[in-house]
């Protein structure tokens, strides 16, 4: 809450202007957008005020002869009455900058800001008889400053790659706070095929409504958003209760308290559909120029956020694909290395077995059919020598079933040679 700031006596202003001067002020401010009121006595009774004063605080309060605090109770507690009391008591002019006043209550409440000048009114003897108030409403300026600050913060969030859902929700709440009339904001995101709209952000709409419209098709006559997405142009529905576009959605809008909806398509730089930006209202309403400007500004901001999100998602997908390809390549390399190692191992085993066969062949001159396996290598093998094998060079050896298996698997030119024991058939049918 901004309080009135005391800036001391206004040395440049006259102590009093007299009756003629006040008449001039009445004429000067009579049709002005600045508010002007003459207050009398310590109770600050409204003696006269210009139309702008009553317009600012509510036409229903357009009456005089009552204390200003009775006419505008919202002024209490904002430093306004304290400033009036001080000026009346001291006779010194004061100014109040950015005095914040909340008019009304509940959903109809609205925030206004004023710069006030408070000057004493004096009689012929110089005694203070009241206070003259001149004010300029700065609400639009304050809102514009806040709007730019909020917009700058959103753009910074986009640059920092804040999650899209967080950016869109912050944007929706910002608009709802800054709009001069009560508004509920919704952002729907287009599917990759551009034929359906998905929930993006709608912090103030009921959950049942958000769930019901999540996934709606784009098409002519599909509410405000579906139609705006289909046409690629803004669709303004001022009265949901009577508009044919809402025939299939009125049963949702009524319990959600929605009476008007203005929807703007969110388009990428290449013209493709990114989503829709909608402003809902609890009463039938047509947009003003300020509403349309607000929609354009934040539709462009939403487009920036969504496009940036798509770029980041594509980048992440490409990085994931590259990582997957590298992993597959690494697996292939490891498999090739393993196969090579196994081949080298088999080659070594084959060479060793071939050497064993040659050694055994040399011994057969003295022992044609040894009792023990000759294929066991340096460690030897005590298993019975049951099968005779030979290679293509004519060398032969006797071995047990296990070592014969090994020789047949690893040494290509090896075959079973003892036909007297049944040969290959006996080996296979063992």
From TrEMBL:
The GAF domain sits at 159-316
SUPFAM superfamilies reported for this sequence: GAF domain-like, PYP-like sensor domain (PAS domain)
Q: Which SMART domains match?
A: GAF
Instruction: Please name the InterPro entries in this protein's record.
Output: GAF, GAF-like_dom_sf, PAS-like_dom_sf, PAS_4
Where do the record's region annotations for Disordered lie?
1-20
| Name of the protein in its database record | GAF domain-containing protein
What organism does the UniProt record list as the source? Streptosporangium subroseum
